[in-house]
């Protein structure tokens, strides 16, 4: 079993999807040790509890700086012997403390065809720019925002009368297939 930690800040549907696949045995040889979140009131917290997982909640602003925050997170990761970090809607840049400790072992999923539309509101930006297609990307995490090496992508069309909500649903359906596949392939 390879121990992974999932980091989320929001609705946590990718996290939930990964958990369901682990539980069904579709995603094999993976043990999710805990959910880590920087948003104690986010919906992902309740999902974590429903899955019977430890949920580690942090308030980054209560630390003197990012270094102190990440050192605290790292202590917990080490206590759980976590080998890989899987970001699933974690809305914070990973700093040197975690990058050094988990070099080449942090994955992220981003709702655009990187290198296009890095950062926030990637879906709205693709829609407003009149793109005919967009999609999702799984990549390794480095110090930049959505700049790490690309591992895999899936595309979907953008329709003429599309809404952001409809497009987001379309992209998430891709993510629910792609992220578990890549996790299974990469994490051994
Ligand atoms: C996903 O679209 C992912 O690509 C991005 O944040 C979103 C998280 O959604 N990084 P959810 O919290 O998993 O529903």
From TrEMBL:
It catalyses: N(1)-(5-phospho-beta-D-ribosyl)glycinamide + (6R)-10-formyltetrahydrofolate = N(2)-formyl-N(1)-(5-phospho-beta-D-ribosyl)glycinamide + (6S)-5,6,7,8-tetrahydrofolate + H(+). N(1)-(5-phospho-beta-D-ribosyl)glycinamide binds at residues 12-14. It comes from the Bacteria. The active site is at residue 110. One of its GO terms (biological process) is 'de novo' IMP biosynthetic process. Its EC number is 2.1.2.2. Coiled coil: none annotated. The keyword Transferase applies. HAMAP family: PurN. This is Phosphoribosylglycinamide formyltransferase. It comes from Staphylococcus muscae. The gene is purN.
């Amino acid at each position: 079993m390879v121990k992974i930690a999932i980091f989320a800040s929001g609705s946590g549907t990718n996290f939930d999807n990964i958990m369901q696949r682990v539980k069904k045995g579709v995603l094999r040889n993976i043990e999710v040790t805990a959910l880590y979140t920087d948003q104690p009131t986010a919906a992902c917290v309740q999902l974590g509890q429903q899955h019977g997982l430890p949920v580690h909640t942090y308030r980054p602003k209560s630390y003197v700086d990012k270094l102190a925050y990440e050192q605290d997170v790292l202590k917990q990761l080490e206590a759980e012997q976590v080998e890989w970090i899987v970001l699933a809607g974690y809305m914070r840049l990973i700093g040197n403390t975690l990058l050094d400790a988990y070099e080449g072992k942090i994955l992220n999923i981003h709702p655009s065809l990187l290198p296009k539309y890095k950062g926030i509101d990637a879906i709205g930006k693709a829609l407003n720019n009149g793109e005919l297609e967009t999609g999702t990307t799984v990549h390794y995490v480095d110090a930049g925002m959505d700049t790490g090496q690309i591992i895999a992508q899936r595309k979907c069309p953008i329709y003429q009368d599309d809404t952001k909500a409809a497009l987001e649903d379309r992209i998430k359906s891709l993510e629910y297939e792609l992220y578990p596949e890549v996790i299974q392939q990469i994490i051994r």
